[in-house]
Design goal:
The chain has one domain (2-105): Sandwich (Immunoglobulin-like). It has strands spanning 2-7, 16-21, 33-38, 44-50, 59-61, 69-73, 81-87, 93-97, 103-105. The strands form two sheets. Strands 6-4-3-7-8-9 form a six-stranded antiparallel beta sheet, with no helix packed on it. Strands 1-2-5 form a three-stranded antiparallel beta sheet, with no helix packed on it. By secondary structure, the chain is mainly beta. The radius of gyration is 13 Å and the shape is globular. Helices cover 0% and strands 42% of the residues.
């Protein structure tokens, strides 16, 4: 099982998604895709798919497809609200953007997977 953790990026509204195994200490398994969706919605604001050429990276920055991945949709600008992040065979991560554009990471682990 894979785990995705959200961290603030070096620029505003550019979160970084850290990919690991469920312990948080080892590399992730195969990741065929990553989706960022507004909470309660099924439409991705950004979606990546692996092209099969490389293994999963350890970090992905919002809006920037790493080598071996292609953009399927977005990226749309992040606005105030709640967002869920899903990866292949992994649990959901959640973050929020406040009205001032600050990233707030939901520290709670979730059992929801896709």
């Amino acid at each position: 099982m894979n785990r995705v953790r959200v961290e603030p990026g070096t620029t505003p509204l550019t979160p970084v998604f850290v990919l690991t195994d469920t312990t948080g200490h080892q590399p992730s398994g195969t990741i065929y895709g990553l989706s960022v969706v507004r909470c309660g919605d099924d439409t991705a604001v950004w979606q990546l798919a692996a092209d099969g050429s490389l293994s999963a990276p350890s970090r992905i920055e919002y809006g920037h497809a790493p080598p071996g991945y292609v953009v399927r949709s977005g990226p749309e600008p992040l606005r105030a609200g709640c967002y869920d992040v899903f990866v292949t065979d992994g649990r959901r991560a959640r973050f929020r953007v406040d009205a001032a554009g600050h990233l707030i990471v939901d520290a709670r682990r979730d059992s929801t997977s896709r």
